[in-house]
Sequence to fold (108 residues):
Amino acid sequence: MKTAKYPVRKRNCKTCPWLEGQAEEWACLKPMLMDRALHSTPLCHSTGKALTRHNGERLKAHVCRGARDFQLELWYRMGFLSAPTDEAWDAKLQEIEEEEHGRTDDQR
Ligand code: SF4
Fold:
C-alpha cells in the first residue's frame, strides 16, 4: 500500500460544501466530494496546488478538512480506526509503515 502524508486543513473553509447549513450553491457539491472521498483523499478547490492568495502567495496543497472528517468517521465505523480523529489516522499510518518495513526486513 502506498501512503502519502499531506498536511490536513485545520478547519473547513468558509465556502465548504460539508458545513451544515451551507448555501445551496456550495452544498450541491457535497455528493461529488463524498464520492471522491470514497476513492481517494481529496485536495479540494480551496486546498489544491493551484491556489494562490490575492497577494500572490502560493499555498501548499492540503487535504480537505470536510472530506477527511467524512473519511475518519467512515473508517472508524468500519473498525479500521480506533477513533474518528486525525491522531488515530496518524497512528494507523505509522502501523502500516511499520508493517511494510517489517515485511521488507523479513524478505532480506
Ligand atoms: S477544501 Fe474541503 S474544507 Fe475547504 S471548502 Fe473545499 S471541501 Fe470544504
